[in-house]
Structure formats: C-alpha cells, structure tokens
Amino acid sequence: MGAFLGTLKPAPALILCSPAARTRETLELLLPALHPSPAILYEEGLYLAEPGALLERIRKLPANMDCVLLVGHNPGLHELGGRLASDPGRLAEGFPTAALAMLQLTGTWADLHWHRAKLGLFQTAKDLIRDLDPDAD
User: Fold this and answer.
1) Rounded to the nearest 5 degrees, what angle is found at the Cα of 54, between the Cα atoms of 111 and 66?
2) Which residues contact 68 (CB under 8 A, 6 or more apart)?
3) pTM of the full predicted structure?
4) Which helix H or strand E contains 82, and what residues bound it?
5) Are the C-beta atoms of residues 68 and 41 closer than 8 Å to each other?
6) DSSP 85
7) In which domain, by residue range, is 81 found?
8) Looking at residue 85, which CATH number applies to its domain?
9) How many separate domains does the chain show?
10) 45 domain residue, yes or no
11) What is the pLDDT of residues 17-51, one digit of tens each?
12) Is residue 120 within 8 Å of residue 102, measured between CB atoms?
C-alpha cells in the first residue's frame, strides 16, 4: 500500500495519526514511499475517535493544506468516509485494514459537511495483491 500511496498526486503535506502502536507501525511502513516527506502530527484525539470528532478536527486544518492523510481506527474512519462521501460506493461495504479512501472536497476544510465530498478512490490491500497476481485469493 505504501508504494501505491507514493504514486498518488498530490502527495499528503500532513499526516494526522493516532498515537496507538499499530497506527504508528502502519505509518512507518508508508513513510518511505512519500516524497516529499510530510509533516506528521500524532494526536490523542484521533484514538478510536467518532466520525463527528474526526470531522471537527478536519475542519480545523489550514485552508492552504491541499492533501491530508488520516491514519486511525475503525469504525470511526469507515463511518467518517461513508458520511462524508456523497456516494460512498464500495466504501459502504467496509473499510478493511490498510485500505485507502481518497475524498475530494470543494471549498475549504472549514466548509466540509456530511455528504459533500466525492469518493475519488477506494483501494484495499487485497485489490493491490489481486492486481499484481490475478490468481491470488
């Protein structure tokens, strides 16, 4: 997933990460693929956060911040993505470990409301493996 994330543009300028050991480990695996290196904030408030709390945090992002990556926990991240997307598509089916949802916004972070973002991409690790080896299960 890290290599895939490194191919996406724009690259995240900031990563908001839960301070939990598992999210830190996940982030360490992703960082080598991200260029330029993003700023990282480990925030206690992201640990097992509810969708509403995550939305409030996102609304506080600087308006000039183009791309931000959240590394956190389910069910909060899954519910956040599903509620932000005007059409959640495959995201409605679930948000497995190491999945990536890219939401595209109009307006500023402060203007973000439920069902006003577009799901631009939903990628799972299983999909990446299947793309590399169509015979893999």
Assistant:
1) 50
2) 12, 13, 14, 15, 16, 58, 61
3) 0.90
4) helix 76-84
5) no
6) B
7) 2-132
8) 3.40.50.1240
9) 1
10) yes
11) 999 999 999 999 999 999 999 999 999 999 999 99
12) yes
